[in-house]
Amino acid sequence: MIEINNASLYYRKANPVLSNVSLNLAKGHYYGLFGKNGEGKTSLLKMMCGGLNPTGGAINVEHQNMATRNAETFKKITLVPEMVLLPNVNCSVFLKMNAPFYPNFNYSNFHKMLEQFHIPVSGKLSNLSQGQQKKTAIAFGLAAKTPWLLLDEPTNGLDIPSKQQFQTILSEFFNADQGVIISTHQIQDIENLIDQVLILDNQKIVFNYSLEEIENKFLFETTNILKEDHLLYHEKQGMSFNTLQKNVLKIPGTINLALLFNAAINPSINLYK
Amino acid sequence: MNFNNIKLLIRRYFLKDGFNVIIGMTSIWLLIIIINSLKDQAVSAIDLDFYYTAMTMLLIIGGPILASLMFFETSESSKGYQFAILPVSIADKLFSAWFISSILYGLLFAMYYYFGLIIFEILKKMGVNSKAISYSFMPNEMIQIYFLTNAFCLMGASWFKKNPVVMNMVFSTIVSILFIGSLGIIFYFIKPSGMVSSFTDAGTMLSINDNITRFTISNSADSMLLVALLTGFFMLVAFYKLKERSI
User: Fold this and answer.
1) A230-251, pLDDT tens digit by residue?
2) For residue B88, which residues of chain A lie inside 8 Å, CB to CB?
3) Under an 8 A CB cutoff, do B15 and A89 touch?
4) How many CB atoms lie within 10 A of CB B64?
5) Residues with Cβ within 8 Å of residue A41, at least 6 apart in sequence
6) Distances from the Cα of B62 to the Cαs of B49, B66, B74, B88, in angstroms?
7) Residues B112-147: pLDDT tens digits?
8) Are the beta carbons of A70 and B12 separated by less than 8 Å?
9) B66: part of which helix (H) or strand (E)?
10) What pLDDT, in 10s, does the model give residues A103-123?
11) Is A50 left (phi over 0), alpha (psi -120 to 50) or beta?
């Protein structure tokens, strides 16, 4: 369980990055954390993994306050940042350097993942491309088997086949007793993977629903004529409209995450009503 | 602190940078030996004074440089995230950094130092002359300065994310100027006319005598205690700065 209680972060009081964010996240889920650029997604992930102390409030991971930064708290969580630059060593030395710190590290899974990602294990890691270094870091994060894994923009810098591989690997190697939080602004890359949607806007979490709840509450339709009944938000696309409506009849449908995101960050719309 | 974590952290450092440190130190040591051998070729003599001075510089400068770079990995989150979120405590990280930069570097230095002396001894037996030694090697003072500056630089390493070596040099210069300036002001006001004061080897030996105050910091238990207290203070500051450090 990750409990975020009124967590705030500011470098200057007048210009907060995050303000009074409160969230409870349970294991066994894939959380998608969405937000515009510069909304504080990376800062929130860094705060969750203990890499950045909140200015106010507290973040507890598995009942341990991350600000204490003791060894036990770091055993609960791993982060793969957006930009990864691995050291100038080969893969086996990299494993010897870092893997022994994680008691549940699965070496065989790590090698399987590298194989699936087509990462060469011989040469120096720093000579790999940015995408390959990132895939190695993702493989390490998954093999570490910590209760929580945080991925910051994991598909940035990956080619199209690798984005598909990433989804396959994540679902194959992640256990139900773990939790994963994927921060991205590329919704389409992870929309088949996640089961919980978190939207960060204006320094706060403005939306927090499971896909099941979204399906029950909202109806996404493309129509030529706008009907005002139950309409929450719409966007014009060519000659038609993409609409977000209240799902009063509980009709099952396909979720349009991009439309939902745009509606959630629109200040004139309150999706919780 | 967890002994196993400290062991793993030291091993991690060696796997990552140990080879470079050893190569760098061997190169400098070889350079010192070569210069020493070529310097007085005309008189065909080994200049032990030069060797002691150069090796002292290697200890007093090399150790602090290494200490300054101990947390440089975390200057960028793309490079340092792995180290920053390793499941070890801040005390484990700090102790292992101190152990590597102060104890292991010191032992490595001692190894090279005595190995050099063995080479000179062999050269002497081969008939090469040795110049008389005028340099007074003071191991106690040297060790105290070494540990103190290393702890100071570790504090700087945890404080400054960018350019820690340069920043430590600037910071230590400012602190030294302030320290000497403050001492000067204090002694100016407390010194009565006719007082005899002498500063001998500033930084290690300072004695001010007068008929009112007798304040002596010398190479004794007092100075060791002062060094231990200052080292402890620097390490404490380093601990809290590391605890706040963000990636």
Assistant:
1) 888 888 888 888 888 888 888 8
2) 71, 74, 101
3) yes
4) 28
5) A33, A34, A35, A152, A183, A185, A200
6) 19, 6, 21, 27
7) 999 988 888 888 888 777 766 666 666 777 888 899
8) no
9) helix B48-68
10) 999 999 999 999 999 898 888
11) left
Three-state DSSP string of A5-20: EEEEEEEECCEEEEEE
> B244 pLDDT exceeds 90?
no
**Nearest CB to A71; choose among B12, B84, B87:** B87
Instruction: Tell me how far apart the alpha carbons of residues A150 and B175 are, in angstroms, rounded to a whole number.
Output: 42
On whether any CB of chain A is under 8 Å from the CB of B88, the answer is yes
Tell me: pLDDT of A176 over 60: yes
User: 3-state DSSP helix/strand/coil percent for chain A, to nearest 5?
Assistant: 30, 30, 35
Residue of B nearest to A96 (CA): B12
Question: Taking CA atoms, what residue in A is nearest to B1?
Answer: A71
**Residue A109 burial class via C-beta count within 10 angstroms: exposed 0-12, middle 13-18, buried 19 and up:** middle
Q: Which residues contact B242 (CB under 8 A, 6 or more apart)?
A: B71, B90, B93, B94, B158
User: How far is the C-alpha of B89 from the C-alpha of B74, rounded, in Å?
Assistant: 15
Q: Which of A51, A70, A101 sits opposite B84 (nearest CB)?
A: A51
3-state secondary structure of B69: coil
Q: Give this prediction's pTM.
A: 0.84
Q: Give dist(CA A57, CA A60) in Å, integer.
A: 10
Contact: B81, A51; criterion CB under 8 Å: yes
Type of residue numbered A259: L
Q: Dihedral sign, CA of B202, B205, B208, B209?
A: negative
CB-based contact B246 A51, cutoff 8 Å? yes
Point out the residue among B81, B87, B243 whose CB comes nearest to the CB of A101.
Answer: B87
Partnered with residue A220 across adjacent β-strands are A244
Separation in Å, CA of B214 to nearest CA in chain A: 46
Task: Mark yes or no for CB contact B85/A98 under 8 Å.
Answer: no
3-state secondary structure A36-50: CCCCCHHHHHHHHCC
